[in-house]
Predict the structure.
Amino acid sequence: QVQLVESGGGLVQAGGSLRLSCLASGRYAMGWFRQAPGKGREFVAAIGWSGRTTSYADSVKGRFTISRDNAQNTVYLQMNSLKPEDTAVYYCAAARGIGVFTNIPDYAYWGQGTQVTVSS
């Protein structure tokens, strides 16, 4: 059973930073998604199994950075220059395949989510 545990969410002012962490029970291609109130879940960032390849949604490119520490089975999402529209529940997810995945159906396992709230 794959387990994913997110941490690091919270309340921050616009322009601030937060770092999310996702501890996995193994090594997988990973992604971060988010879901704002009343909206569907959307892709944020993804990283390949080795950590050498990444992908970002246009809305976060240049502000967010995804990385991983394979020795710790942990994936990070560094979020800088946060905006009120970044407010959402953030989920990490693990994919079975090898590569970088941006679509929800590619991910088989999901964490419980962590709330990020950005005040204006």
In short: The chain is about 0% helix and 50% strand. The radius of gyration is 13 Å.
